[in-house]
Amino acid sequence: MKVIVINCGSSSIKYQLHDVSLDQVLAKGIVARIGEEGSSLRHQAGDTVIEKDVAASSHGEAFEVIRRALLDPEGGVMSGVSEISAVGHRVVHGGETFVDSVLITDDVVAKLEKCIPLAPLHNPANVIGIREARRILPDVPHVAVFDTAFHQTLPPKAYLYAVPYELYETHRVRRYGFHGMSYRYVSKRAAGLLEKPLNKVKMIICHLGNGVSMAALDGGKSVDTSMGLTPLEGLIMGTRSGDVDPGVIFFLHRELGLSVDRIEDLLNRESGLLGISGASNDMRDVIRKASEGNQRCRLALEGFAYRAKKFVGAYAAALGGLDALVFTAGIGENSPLVRQMICENLECMGISLDETKNEEAVGVEKLISTPTSRVSILVVPTDEERVIVMDTLAVAGLAG
Description:
By secondary structure, the protein is an alpha/beta fold. It has two domains: 2-146, Nucleotidyltransferase, domain 5, CATH 3.30.420.40; 195-242 and 272-379, Nucleotidyltransferase, domain 5 (2-Layer Sandwich). It has 15 helices and 14 strands. The radius of gyration is 21 Å and the shape is globular. The chain starts with a strand and ends in a 5-residue tail after the last helix.
C-alpha cells in the first residue's frame, strides 16, 4: 500500500511516497520556484537523485512534474498512479475548527478557506494543493493533517492574548501554535528512550529548524508553545523575527512609510538570522562565518541561543518541574554548538550537558546529559511525514 504525503507551499510542493507495507520511503522530492523563472525538480528514489529545470508555471503543472518523476523509468518507483491508495496533506492552520486530522470533503475545503485569514501566507497554498491533488487522484481518500491540532490542549490562560476579549469571540484571535506533528512524534520517541510512560513525563521540546518553536508538554499534552496566531511569534528563526515589540510595526509604518504588506514581508522573510547577520538564514553558514570573525553572525548565533534559553526557563516554571529537554529538527538534531550554548549555565535547573556525547549526537537519537543531570537531555530526529502517513491511514480506514 502506497501513501503520498503532500506539503504545498506558495511556490513549492514537497512530496514523499511511502510504501506502508515495507515501512519505507520510496521517493521524495520538491518542485521549487513554481510560477517563477527557473522552476526546478529535485527527486530522490533510493540512491538515484535527479535534479533538473522543469516547466511549472502553476501548481497544476507542478503536480504533473511530480507524477512524471514517480513514473519515470530512471528514478520512478511506480508503474501507475493507481498504486497510490491515499493522500495525506499537511495543512498549516486549522484554527479551532479542526482539532484532529480529517477526511477531506468539499465541506472541509470550504471550512479551510475560512481559515485563510488566520494563515494568509500558508493556507491558500495548502488549499490549492488539496484541490489539484483531488483533481488528479479523485478516487482515493485525501486526509488533512494540521500543524495546529496538537496544541488544542492549551489552557485559556496560555492561548489568550491580552487584547479585547471580543477579538477572540468574534475573530478567534488567540495563540494556536505549530509544528504539532513534530511534537507528537518526538514526544513519543523521547518517552520511549527514557523508558517512561509519556503521560508521566514533563518535557520541553525545542524544534529548531528554519522555522523555530518550543513547546512545554505535560504528560504528552501541549500546555504552552512559542508560536502564536501565526508562525511569526516566538523565537528567532531563519528569516522570521520572532517576538518583537508590536510598537515596531507602528514605527515602521509612521516613520519609514512602510505599508502593512511590506512590514509583514520584512518580518517574515528578511528578519531572524538573516536580518541580524546580513549574511544567511542558514545556521550552518552563520556558525561558519561567526568562527571566521564575522561579528554580526556571532550576534545572530548568540541571540538565537539566548532567546531559546529564556524559553527553557519560562517553560520549566510553567510545568512546575522538568524531566526532559529534547532537541529536534535541522539545527536541533545537527548542531552541537547551538545545543551547548542553550544549555550553558542551566546547571541551576538540573540541566547538565555531557560535552562528549553532545558532539557525537549529529542526526541520531541520543541521550546527551551527564549521569548526574537531574534533567535528561535528548536529541531525537523528527519525522513529521510518518505522522501524516499514520493519520492518513487511520482516518481513511486503511490502517491494519
